[in-house]
Amino acid sequence: MQEYLTHKPFDLYALHLFHLVVKHRSFTRAAREAGLSQSALTRQMQALEQKLGVSLITRTTRSVEVTEAGHYLATEATRLIGSVAQALDGLHATFVPARPVVRVSVSRSMAMAHMPGLFHANHQRHPEVVCKISYNPSEAILTALDASEIDVGVLCPPSPLPETVKVTHRFKDTFELIAPAALASKAVTFKRRDRLFHWLHEQPWLMITSTTNTGKGLRRWMKRQQLAIEPTMELDSFDLIINLVASGFGLAFVPRRALALYRRKETLGNIALPERFERDIVAITRKHRKLPLHVETFVENILF
């Protein structure tokens, strides 16, 4: 082992920096997160490639591409960094007196009305536990979970989910088509489906961004319903979409649950369609990793 550590290109810090470059696909953003200059990060990556004797990254003026060898190392590095982080978390939890912390990353496509089911029960039963909450795209949540940067992820899952994670909770999130109250009243007057859909195509639309799993699934469903809509606005927040619809900006599909916390319900109306769009929402943890007791308890207290 001593000979291995002395002569082999094994450096956790270099692997961490490489992980950041792959995560961000950008030397600029990776250097910013690492607290380094871009030139210093570049030298670190060049030294790592030289020691390994393989090319890991192809860098152009516009992008950073990861080679086949780089993808292999990135997968192993993520697992290794995650295991080290888990060991340090366990060490800290066992020997350093402090309030227990649960790190939860929630998809940006979740609404404020989804939050009580995640946090309320655990907050009532275990107020000593600190919840650190972040909003991230689903891809970033999966990467952070694999690297042990978070304990629990909540998202609309891609298909298939990585084999390294397990689903602890799942529920169906049903959507409603909403419109400003005056437009919703107008829609009721159309008795025939073809006339209603013709009218729907003439209206301005707001939609959740197509880069999200929810956005992709919703667009596929709309296409099957023969709703080929080009939105006038794309946003990454259903709460913002609901407020803009109520202000007269157009129509939108939103989670029924997201409407629960909106107080000016008289400004909105529903438009009934023959079918409703549904998405899956899941809570996930990393597989093959024993959760600390306070994290395991938090997961048990999720109410969906």
TrEMBL record:
What Gene3D superfamilies does this protein map onto? 3.40.190.290, Winged helix-like DNA-binding domain superfamily/Winged helix DNA-binding domain
Q: Superkingdom, according to UniProt? A: Bacteria
The record ties this protein, via InterPro entries, to:
LysR_HTH_N, LysR_subst-bd, WH-like_DNA-bd_sf, WH_DNA-bd_sf
Record keyword Transcription present: yes
Q: Is-annotated flag, keyword DNA-binding?
A: yes
Alphabetically, the GO molecular function entries are: DNA-binding transcription factor activity; transcription cis-regulatory region binding
Tell me where in this chain the HTH lysR-type domain is found.
10-67
Key words of the record: DNA-binding, Transcription, Transcription regulation
State the similarity comment.
Belongs to the LysR transcriptional regulatory family.
Q: What is this protein called?
A: DNA-binding transcriptional LysR family regulator
What is the species of this protein?
Prosthecobacter fusiformis
